[in-house]
User: Fold NADH-quinone oxidoreductase subunit I from Streptomyces bobili.
Amino acid sequence: MSRLSIPGSGLAKGLAVTLRTMTRKTVTEQYPDVQPDLAPRTRGVIGLFEENCTVCMLCARECPDWCIYIDSHKETIPAATPGGRERSRNVLDRFAIDFALCMYCGICIEVCPFDALFWSPEFEYAETDIHELTHERDKLREWMWTVPAPPALDPGAEEPKEIAAARKTAEKLAAAQAEQATQATQAAQDASATEATPAGPDDPQGGEA
Ligand code: SF4
Ligand code: SF4
Assistant:
């Protein structure tokens, strides 16, 4: 079915759009005098929480730009018990990201199994020397201070395993400390009661100081 076109309707529509745009309030971002209001999940820069990194190399392997550089060495940990087995662990020597190559895809953050990488909304790190855009581990750690706190859990959500385990450990520790404190108080009370008891005539000490 062909549509009936009124002559000049296209022109009227075009003018309506023009008029609407002309009367709309213009918005000018006053950056850098006023900081932009960024979304919480803005991809500005990547922060490294080094303590969580096990040097598994997954992020470096999955990065499509090959812009994550990791160096490490192995360290032997002596056996915890006599006759036990020695263990070895990876120790991080270098962790760097070249933000001149990074395309901010977020794959490294997604694949990290140990929550060692995070997005920070910080974006003011332009450099005049491209080499400076390779951020080494100390600089990557500094970005962690600008990572926003995670959103709150849904009210009915199950408690995360890590938090549940930490809570149980803290509760056990508190109970053990309370038990120790009770025993110490009881022992102190027993000792003062013994001291307060007057010496009898048969007391070999004879009540002498
Ligand atoms: S965001 Fe993407 S490109 Fe950038 S370091 Fe991570 S995996 Fe590589
Ligand atoms: S994936 Fe995570 S734990 Fe593994 S090397 Fe990268 S940052 Fe470290």
